[in-house]
């Protein structure tokens, strides 16, 4: 079982954001997933986005996928509507052709080099069924590692994808998952349970909180029992610690891991929140949930549809409430949240110092 002691860090790390947190953009100097690998077929192009930037993903019949600005340099028509020919993408309008570096290699009706202008290219990588781009300074791409993603490559686990799109700023999603005190929201799915805070760790680029849960009423959901086993009912007594749930934001990604009472990993969730829109007030989620296979693996296969329904219902409840938070932010003209939980205060400070205030960011009033 993990150490529950709180690791102390300098107090200034938990200082309140200087700007409205919902006006702090993601730092672009990280790898962000923008599409599932299976969506980008050989010999085809695919339209994706990061924040306000349209990006065309191109997969030649041979060779790795690459990423270009999704606007032809000629008339700004989306390159994703074009035709892949060899290693190049040809604009659907006039047939201008661009290579994987964004260089215009052909303006067919002029038949000479050096005529067409280039388009922006993005560093692009593929891992664990996801296509990542590096939207920031391309010179930094080689120095920033791709994230470790759940247990996708581990044959002892079964993994499912989820990808809800939300009408809210990405910071609401980090807060939602980190703060397990919101289980009251899921009472219809989970029954009456209480989160018990078990400790934290934090550093310059991460915040972690650990919890266990005590059931106060209602039956254990079938999907939960299939993953963790049936919990014992102890009439009139506090439920013992059966699992430890660890939620960690390692900027800009978030994870949730569950270890059983023996310390074995039984569930591993990895999530990236990719901003949408120039104001980043929308979010595309890319998540991978890995569940440890039981001794009789077919049992998990049989339970997989039930688990999918259960997790989808939980995500839908979270989606509704964070979108309501965003709606309130718009109506009130800013962030009026009154936060009292120290873990979320520390998380907000992490997100504030790690992100980039946008052009409209308003300094917060002190006091």
UniProtKB/TrEMBL annotation:
The keyword Iron-sulfur applies. Residues 31-133 form the Rieske domain. It comes from the Bacteria. InterPro entries: Cholesterol_7-desaturase, Rieske_2Fe-2S, Rieske_2Fe-2S_sf, VanA_C_cat. GO terms for molecular function: 2 iron, 2 sulfur cluster binding; metal ion binding; oxidoreductase activity. The keyword Iron applies. Keywords: 2Fe-2S, Iron, Iron-sulfur, Metal-binding, Oxidoreductase. This is Rieske domain-containing protein. It comes from Acetobacter persici.
């Amino acid at each position: 079982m993990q150490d529950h002691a709180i690791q102390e860090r300098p107090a200034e790390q938990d200082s309140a954001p200087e700007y409205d947190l919902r006006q702090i953009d993601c730092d672009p100097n990280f790898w962000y997933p923008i599409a599932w690998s299976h969506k980008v077929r050989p010999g085809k192009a695919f339209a994706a986005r990061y924040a306000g930037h349209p990006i065309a993903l191109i997969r030649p019949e041979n060779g790795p996928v690459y990423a270009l600005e999704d606007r032809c340099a000629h008339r700004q028509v989306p390159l994703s509507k074009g035709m892949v020919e060899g290693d190049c993408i040809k604009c659907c309008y006039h047939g201008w052709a661009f290579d994987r570096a964004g260089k215009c290699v052909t303006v067919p009706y002029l038949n000479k080099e050096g005529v067409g202008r280039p388009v922006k290219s993005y560093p692009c990588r593929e891992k664990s069924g996801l296509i990542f781009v590096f939207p920031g300074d391309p010179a930094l791409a080689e120095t920033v590692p791709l994230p470790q993603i759940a247990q996708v490559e581990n044959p002892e686990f079964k993994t499912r994808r989820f990808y809800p799109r939300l009408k809210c700023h990405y910071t609401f999603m980090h807060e939602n998952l980190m703060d397990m005190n919101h289980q009251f929201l899921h009472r219809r799915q989970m029954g009456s349970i209480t989160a018990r805070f078990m400790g934290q760790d934090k550093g310059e680029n991460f915040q972690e909180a650990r919890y266990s849960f005590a059931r106060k009423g209602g039956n254990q959901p079938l999907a939960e029992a299939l993953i963790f086993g049936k919990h014992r009912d102890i009439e009139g007594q506090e439920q013992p610690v059966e699992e430890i749930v660890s939620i960690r934001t390692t900027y800009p990604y978030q994870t949730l891991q569950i270890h059983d009472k023996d310390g074995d990993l039984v569930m591993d969730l990895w999530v990236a929140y990719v901003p949408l829109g120039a104001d980043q007030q929308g979010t595309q989620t890319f998540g991978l949930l890995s569940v440890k296979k039981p001794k009789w693996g077919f049992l998990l296969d049989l339970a997989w549809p039930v688990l999918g329904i259960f997790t989808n219902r939980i995500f839908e409840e979270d989606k509704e409430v964070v979108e309501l938070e965003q709606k309130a932010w718009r109506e009130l003209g800013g962030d009026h949240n009154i936060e009292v939980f120290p873990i979320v205060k520390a998380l907000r400070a992490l997100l504030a110092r790690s992100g980039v205030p946008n052009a409209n960011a308003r300094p917060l009033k002190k006091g």
